[in-house]
Amino acid sequence: MKxxxxxxxxxxxxxxxxxxxxxxxTTNPSLMAKEGIKGEKNILAHYKNICEIVDGDxxxxxISTDYNGMIAEGERLAALHKQIVVKIPVTENGIKAIxxxxxxxxxxxxxxxxxxxxxxxxxxxxxxxxxxxxxxxDDIGENGMELIERLVYIFELYGFETExxxxxxxxxxxxxxxxxxxxDVATCPLDAITGLLNHPLTDAGLEKFxxxxxxxxx
Length: 218
Ligand code: E4P
Hints:
Layout lengths: L1 E5 L3 H10 L4 E3 L2 H6 L5 H14 L3 E5 L5 H14 L3 E6 L2 H12 L4 E6 L2 H9 L4 E4 L1 H6 L4 H15 L4 E4 L5 H10 L3 E4 L1 H5 L5 H18 L1
Parallel strand pairs: 1-2, 1-8, 2-3, 3-4, 4-5, 5-6, 6-7, 7-8
Erythose-4-phosphate binds next to helix 7.
């Protein structure tokens, strides 16, 4: 399972990159706004910065909702850097834009996916990735993990090449469940990833090793 970092925060991206555990980054307009990045020039420069830190794919989302706007923006974003994957919402115009961009060799990540039908259309249009949102489904009393499991099954059944990115991950338990479900990628906040390290027996064991060493060595 690949790990993408779900943030536009450069410090967090650097930290995860230095740990050597991330395979890419996903952003969205809310995450960019959270970092205070505004204006097209700054937004594009920020995506380029992220690409220069990490080795893998970096999803950059279009703001347009009309077809012509989506493809023009998609082409602009893709021209920025070879690691850019154009993130497009799963609307009718979005699916059409994914088809167009795929035909021109531009990779896409179809976002805001909440059911298998939306994921199917994204895969048929040739999306490189599809992003089902776990946490937001859980938030409204549905079962986000169930959607991931269904998509893994369906995509395997039909041999779709589109990779599934489990998105809207809120905690370490989501990550562990994604691993068991066999999802291709989990895009996560940094604290959910570092949370995987936590175990009280690790802390207690390390403390014991160090205190035994101190007893003899001072
Ligand atoms: C990533 O592709 C998504 O935009 C992101 O995971 C959404 O997460 P949220 O539901 O926590 O905002």
